[in-house]
UniProtKB/TrEMBL annotation:
InterPro entries: AAA_16 (IPR041664), P-loop_NTPase (IPR027417), Sig_transdc_resp-reg_C-effctor (IPR016032), TPR-like_helical_dom_sf (IPR011990), TPR_rpt (IPR019734), WH-like_DNA-bd_sf (IPR036388)
Composition bias, Basic and acidic residues: 988-1004
Domain Orc1-like AAA ATPase as annotated: residue spans: 23-178
Claim: S-adenosyl-L-methionine is one of the keywords in the record: no
SUPFAM superfamilies assigned to the protein according to its UniProt record, in alphabetical order: C-terminal effector domain of the bipartite response regulators, P-loop containing nucleoside triphosphate hydrolases, TPR-like
Keyword entries, A-Z: ATP-binding, Nucleotide-binding
Sequence segments annotated as region (Disordered): 964-1004
PANTHER family: TESTICULAR SOLUBLE ADENYLYL CYCLASE, TRANSCRIPTIONAL ACTIVATOR DOMAIN
Protein name: AAA family ATPase
Length: 1004
């Protein structure tokens, strides 16, 4: 610890600040403290001292882990060291609270439980998100929390990626992170470089350790060799080791072993001794330790950190007594030291590296094979053994090794470590496998990268399907083809995805279900394409296929779901669409085999079904499906594109329902997830498109325009994938909202031409004709009316209330006087029967304005007030402002002071009814058999809506002062009546009957 006073003061200050701020009630008090420097500069010693300081603080929880050079490829090695002790010590109830819904994701990854039988592979991002949740729950329970990681540069990639990400969130928690690592980029693996830079940039206290001063090195020398050490000798010694503490200690050992007097004339020998001290060769280690002890040291170096003596004994092929002598000698030579749990560790990682690197190649690979077998025999499993298996000799064609590697790969996928799985499978291919198994290994290799590396997946699956690589079982050929098409589609290659399935289906015989799966997939990818050569013909073929179905298996239902979406896009009668869609479900839920996380069909099938419901005014059903998707993706640990798409779908449904603030929240979440995965993926286009529509609806057209410019949401849009909803229609609508009718007309005309070619006439998904009518209204009024009438006709053919109402509302924008009023009255009537709250609000405001223009001010006022109330519920701020201006400009009150009782839902009224009698919240809860917390929430809503506290509540509800109960509430009635009888206030019960107002659906 010489010359480290400043670093120790900084560390102690960070620990004290954490403890002090937490004791004062602070929560968002986290920091990141880093120590960096070259090898041997003293980072490990410093970190141990910080660990000691933290443990002295009362109530502090200290977690420690260390990266290992040999364990860089062992997934979650560092995080398991760090978190297993504290999570494993939690009581069962607290463990469930800390884990929440992430137990089946984080538990297996952290080695706290085995994956369930039949569990799905985990998305690495899902594991990281789950760990975020767990630490968010754990940190306040074990605060102040100090988490130390030594040798971060050797941390496995799975642990490192989470630590770098968590360093950002740690500021919001009572957590001090302390990392020690080598600062030279050459010491970091290539795939870790970005995390290295991220950690360095996030540190609030960053210390780069410098070399020891001459004075410090002189003190070390004289403490070991006595005051007789001459200044000239000490200076040369300091110069040779360049102030490096590790090299200084190693050189001192050599000086002591050689019995070299520390005088000036001997200083010339120091450089030669330093070479032996730091560049330990096989010969030098043999001379120092002997063959048997060195072999034990090799076994220990292979095991890495936290070395089990029994395993090292068996790997080194020594007897128990021989191993005991080896350990004794290695401790004497300051190579190994004991840990508190009875295991061993190297005194310094540089010693471990030196010993491992002296192993002859044949010896090293052979001992790795022994280590893999001994680890598996010790019951530690294939996950732990696999890092040794991949280092063994290849080229022997051992089927047993191939089977083990394939099983290990499968287990790695179950804990969210696809890169580790791929290392195992690449090694299995190098064995090599039997000719009959090679294609299957390639298939497994392709699937292992499904969630992380699309390019690798495509290449490996194409090889698996190549006959020259060997036969692939028919069922696996179907699945490999589907997976290949899935990855191609997600990469934007939709045409190629459809053709792959179509061509394989033509050669699939003897497996009707597999053939139908591929045919359905081909139809699905064609449907999501930006453009298509034979859209109507494809739709006809899909209709023929649908009519030929005779069963109710998953494949049959999948075709029905695709047909429902196809008919939706074509604007076919909604009743026909819903008949197909309802036939897919079992009691309103997805059937077995078509679930969101199903491995056979993927999430696209249930998504198309939900989209069909969304555009056919069955939004509640769609929301149930989409909420299931969010939960299931979270439970499965799929936190990337899958959950992002679920957020998008829910945002779209909330937008269609008119809950604009909630829609914006979901869509922004989807966009953030998409940006985390890659640049301008199809998911991002979808989210941005609906977000633009939402911002326009909220009256923030300029913000919508800026978003479109920043993202590039303009022609030609995504190169190959269709945007949901239609991108060109959205862009034309955006141009209209910012006052560019000419540009809108051009964009919408082109959109209509493209959609007509495909035979898609849905006016909700692509309302191009109605908006084109508005763009043309000034310059070409007759042509505009033609388009508006066409839009209404298409909407009436489709038949949903929202489609017809919206088409009529937009038609009314190009008409005047009584004709506009009549169109809007019809629009309001239709939209009042639909779930499209925002569209209904716009129609109400438009009708109010139209009525005002024809002189019907009283009717205009009523519709404008209704429009304001509904627009406020929808968070359509711009529409509210427009309606208020419409009222104010003609001398009408911009805000109606209505009966507050009308704003209360029936549950709120029940609570208010008892509160005005003076009943305390607990008594209300008892009387209504409700939780006290729910009563308090309802009372808060009552006071907010009434604009009064408890004292003025009766008056706010329209009761005369003398009608209020003036006696305090008593548990027993004063008049001897039955206390179980419900209390009734005639004045309240006499209020006009109002329709119940269901509470707003909860968000996620």
């Amino acid at each position: 610890m010489r010359d480290r006073d400043a670093e120790l003061r900084s560390a102690e200050a960070a620990v004290d600040k954490l403890c002090r701020d937490f004791a004062a009630g602070g929560t968002e008090i986290g920091e990141l403290l880093t120590f960096s420097g070259r090898p041997g500069i003293g980072k490990t010693s410093l970190l141990h001292e910080v660990r000691r300081i933290a443990k002295l603080r009362p109530n502090a929880t200290v977690l420690f882990a260390r990266g290992g050079e040999r364990q860089f490829n062992e997934p979650y090695h560092v995080l398991r060291q760090l978190l297993q002790p504290v999570l494993g010590d939690l009581a069962p109830g607290e463990f469930r609270q800390v884990m929440g819904t992430w137990e089946e994701v984080v538990g297996p990854a952290m080695g706290l439980k085995q994956p369930k039988k039949g569990a799905r592979r985990l998305d690495p991002q899902g594991v990281r998100d789950g760990l975020d949740f767990v630490l968010t729950q754990l940190a306040p329970r074990r605060a102040p929390l100090v988490m130390l990681v030594d040798d971060l540069h050797w941390a496995d990639l799975e642990s490192l990626s989470w630590l770098a990400q968590f360093a950002v969130r740690a500021r919001e928690l009572p957590v001090l992170l302390v990392f020690a690592y080598r600062d030279d980029s050459a010491d970091w693996q290539q795939e870790s470089q970005d995390h290295h830079r991220a950690v360095a940039s996030l540190a609030t206290r960053r210390h780069e350790l410098s070399r020891l001063s001459l004075v410090a090195v002189t003190d070390i020398i004289r403490a070991e060799l006595g005051d007789r050490a001459e200044d000239a000798f000490c200076y040369e010694f300091w110069n040779v080791v360049n102030g490096n503490p590790f090299e200084a200690v190693a050189l001192l050992d050599q000086v002591r072993d050689q019995e070299l007097d520390p005088v000036e004339e001997n200083s010339l020998q120091l450089r030669e001794l330093a070479v032996d001290a730091t560049g330990m060769t096989l010969k030098s280690w043999l001379d120092r330790l002997g063959a048997a002890t060195l072999r034990f040291a090799w076994a220990a170096a292979m095991l890495g950190t936290d070395i089990r003596p029994d395993l090292a004994t068996r790997i080194s092929a020594q007897s128990t007594e021989g191993a005991r002598e080896s350990v004794k000698e290695l401790r004497k030579q300051r190579v190994l030291t004991a840990t508190p749990n009875g295991n061993l560790e190297f005194v310094h990682p540089l010693i471990a590296s030196s010993i491992y690197n002296t192993m002859p190649e044949a010896t090293r690979t052979g001992m790795h094979g022994v280590a893999a077998a001994e680890i598996e025999n010790a019951g530690l499993g294939l996950l732990a053994a696999s890092r040794h298996l991949v280092e063994t000799f290849a080229g022997e064609g051992d089927d047993r090794t191939v089977r083990k590697l394939r099983r290990a790969a499968s287990e790695h996928l179950l804990i969210g470590a696809p890169e580790a799985a791929q290392r195992c499978l690449h090694r299995a291919l190098a064995e090599p496998p039997d000719d009959l198994d090679r294609a299957e290994v390639l298939y497994e290799l392709g699937c292992s990268a499904l969630l992380t590396d699309p390019v690798a997946t495509v290449n490996q699956l194409k090889l698996a399907l190549d006959p020259e690589e060997g036969p692939l079982r028919p069922s696996l050929r179907v699945d490999a083809t589907f997976r290949l098409s899935e990855v191609l589609a997600h990469s934007g290659e939709l045409r190629q995805a459809a053709l792959v399935c179509q061509q394989e289906a033509e050669h699939t015989f003897g497996d009707p279900a597999g053939r139908l799966r591929l045919e359905a997939a081909s139809f699905m990818w064609h449907a999501f394409r930006k453009s298509e050569e034979d859209g109507p013909a494809r739709s006809a073929r899909l209709g023929t296929l649908c009519e030929s179905l005779t069963g109710r298996e998953a494949a049959d239902r999948a075709v029905l779901a695709l047909r429902a979406w196809d008919l939706t896009l074509r604007g076919a009668p909604s009743a026909e669409v819903l008949r197909h869609a309802d036939d897919v479900l079992d009691n309103g839920r997805l059937p077995k085999g078509l679930g969101w996380t199903d491995n056979i069909w993927g999430f696209e099938l249930p998504a198309t079904l939900g989209l069909s419901y969304t555009y056919n005014d069955r939004i509640a059903q769609a929301e149930r499906l989409f909420s299931d998707a969010i939960v299931q993706f979270e439970v499965a640990g799929w936190s990337g594109a899958h959950r992002g798409f679920a957020y998008f779908l829910m945002g779209l449904a909330r937008f269609r329902r008119g809950l604009l603030a909630e829609a914006e929240d979901f869509l922004r979440r989807a966009l953030r997830l998409s940006e985390r995965i890659g640049s301008k993926l199809p998911l991002a286009w979808d989210a941005v498109g609906v977000l633009i529509d939402t911002l326009i609806a909220r009256g923030r057209s300029r913000e919508a325009w800026d978003l479109a410019i920043d993202f590039g949401f303009h022609p030609p849009y995504h190169a190959t994938a269709m945007v949901l909803p239609d991108a060109a229609s959205l862009y034309g609508k955006l141009l209209l909202s910012v006052g560019r009718p000419a540009g809108a007309a051009a964009a919408l005309t082109e959109a209509g031409a493209q959609l007509d070619i495909r035979g898609w006439h849905n006016t909700v998904w692509a309302p191009w004709a109605a908006h084109l009518a508005i763009a043309l209204a000034v310059d070409e009024p007759e042509r505009a009316r033609d388009y508006a009438r066409r839009s209404v006709a298409d909407a009436e053919r489709f038949g949903t209330a929202s489609a017809i109402g919206t088409a009529l509302r937009l038609y009314a924008q190009i008409e005047d006087g009584q004709q506009a009023v009549e169109l809007l009255e019809r629009a309001v009537a239709h939209l009042g029967q639909s779930p499209a709250g925002y569209e209904h609000a716009v129609a109400l405001v438009d009708l109010g304005a139209a009525l005002r223009r024809v002189g019907r001010l009283e009717d205009a006022q009523e519709y404008l007030y209704q429009g304001i109330e509904l627009a406020q519920h929808c968070a359509a701020d711009g529409l509210v402002d427009r309606a208020r201006r419409e009222l104010a400009n003609y001398g009408l009150r911009p805000n109606r002071l209505g009966d507050v009782r009308e704003t209360l839902s029936q549950p709120e009224w029940d609570v208010a009814e008892l509160a005005v009698r003076g009943a305390p919240p607990q008594r209300i809860a008892d009387r209504l058999a409700l939780p006290l917390s729910l009563v308090n929430r309802r009372l808060a809503a009552v006071y907010r809506k009434a604009g009064s506290g408890p004292d003025g509540l009766a008056a706010a509800l329209g009761l005369a002062p003398e009608q209020r109960a003036v006696e305090p509430w008593a548990p027993e009635p004063r008049d001897g009546s039955d206390p179980a009888e419900p209390l009734v206030l005639p004045e309240l019960r006499a209020r006009p009957e109002l329709p119940e107002r269901p509470d707003r659906p909860d968000g996620f």
